[in-house]
Amino acid sequence: MPLVFVTFACGLVFGAGLLISGMTQTGKVLGFLDIFGAWDATLAFVMAGAVAVATIGFALAKRRGAPVFAAQNLWPTRKDIDAPLVTGAVLFGIGWGLVGLCPGPALVNLAGLGLPVIVFVAAMVAGMIAQDMWSKQKAATPTSETAIAASTDG
Hints:
By secondary structure, the protein is mainly α. It has seven helices and no strands.
């Protein structure tokens, strides 16, 4: 089975899960995030279910060794907590808390063509592009340590 069909099926399952669980309902998400107010803990079950399924899936994938639909497993190599990770998590949390949407549910809600969701997704994409451009520029700019090392190597 071609990878595109597997990817499509996974996307359908993910989107259906978001809809069925209520993760696409901004009011429900904001109620879950409001732990000091009228907290709606129902999405905690969604999270627990996702962690349980993922744990089983990862265990099976590691036991199998080689993936079924790809040339190799792409396991994460970094495990450190650095400033970009923390900054990204904070920005993600701010956006999620203000709007009640994160990228997956926002894309699912985009199908309704509501102006607020269209604006949110456009801003999200602009932020992703800006971060990608900043990251590429940062990678291309030598740090003071590498510049000093390069100037003394010659």
